[in-house]
Amino acid sequence: YGGSSTFCRFSLAMAEQCLRGEELRARHQAALLKLRKKALQEKAKAELAWLGHQKRYLENLQDSKVASAMAGKQRRIQMELKQGQAEIQHLQNLYRAAHQERKLLLRQQREILMMQHSTAQLQEKLYRLGG
User: Fold this and answer.
1) Distance (Å, rounded) from C-alpha 35 to C-alpha 41?
2) Global pTM?
3) Tens of pLDDT, residues 41-85
4) What pLDDT, on a 0 to 100 scale, did the predictor assign at position 2?
5) How many CA atoms lie within 13 A of 33 on its CB side?
6) Could you list the residue ranges forming a coiled coil in this record (predicted)?
7) How far apart are CA 95 and CA 116, in angstroms?
8) Averaged over 97-126, what is the pLDDT?
9) Candidate ranges 30-44, 64-78, 92-106; pick with highest mean pLDDT
């Protein structure tokens, strides 16, 4: 019976370690997505600023045809930014849901192991009392 109790304690420690690892992975994933979102916004902002500069330059030259093409490029960049942000939001939601599921499974595993540990301890006491 002693070996069973030791195994339960070991399994419980492993479940706790898995939970801590899952929390760490979730934090890393959230940080990566946050960085990706920031990079996407900064890229769009830089592209829009560059196009704005070109548009003003072309307007000064009174080239309205090219200036209107610049406005179209600006709209495309803004649409790409919105699509990228929507994709990142979707990934965040997916990762969050998957994380919650894994966390729940690990907690349930921990509870099962705790019950097994308690059962093993009770069996050990009964064995000692009976023997």
Assistant:
1) 10
2) 0.63
3) 999 999 989 888 887 777 777 767 777 788 888 899 999 999 999
4) 46
5) 19
6) 74-108
7) 31
8) 84
9) 30-44
Number of domains the chain contains: 1
The number of residues making up the chain comes to 131
Domain of residue 104, residue span: 2-130
102: CATH? 1.10.287
Residue 118: other Cβ atoms inside 10 A: 12
* Cα angle value 44/45/48 (rounded, 5°): 80
CA distance 80 to 72: 12
Measure the CA–CA gap between 77 and 35, rounded to whole angstroms.
19
Gap between the Cα atoms of 62 and 57, Å rounded? 9
The owner of tokens 């069973």 is: 4
